[in-house]
Amino acid sequence: MTKLEQIIDFAKTLPVEQQDGIANDLVAIMRSRNKAISLSPKEIADVKTAIADKNPIFASESEILAVLGKNF
User: Fold this and answer.
1) How many angstroms separate the CA atoms of 23 and 29, rounded?
2) Cα dihedral sign, 69-44-23-31
3) Which has fewest Cβ within 10 Å: 6, 9, 13, 54?
4) Which long-range contacts (CB under 8 A, 24 or more apart) does 19-25 make?
């Protein structure tokens, strides 16, 4: 399990208000590190929905690499 997966698992145990705060912080970090990333309000809502999902379905490593490329 990656550190990010561990953080997400922990965040899912928190109350929704705290999860929303974490999602907002993550978006802010992503924006500060890569100016090419810009999430729309709908994408932000989708992230918040995914974080709140009690039974998430994760993409496999091969699915991720197919989307992001081998250099990811």
Assistant:
1) 10
2) positive
3) 54
4) 19/48, 19/51, 19/52, 20/48, 22/51, 23/47, 23/48, 23/51
User: Which has the closest alpha carbon to 55: 9, 18, 16, 15?
Assistant: 9
C-beta of residue 23 within 8 angstroms of C-beta of residue 31: no
- pTM higher than 0.70: no
Q: From CA 41, how far away is CA 44, in angstroms rounded?
A: 5
* Helix ranges restricted to H, the chain: 3-11, 16-33, 41-52, 61-68
| pLDDT surpassing 80 at residue 70 | no
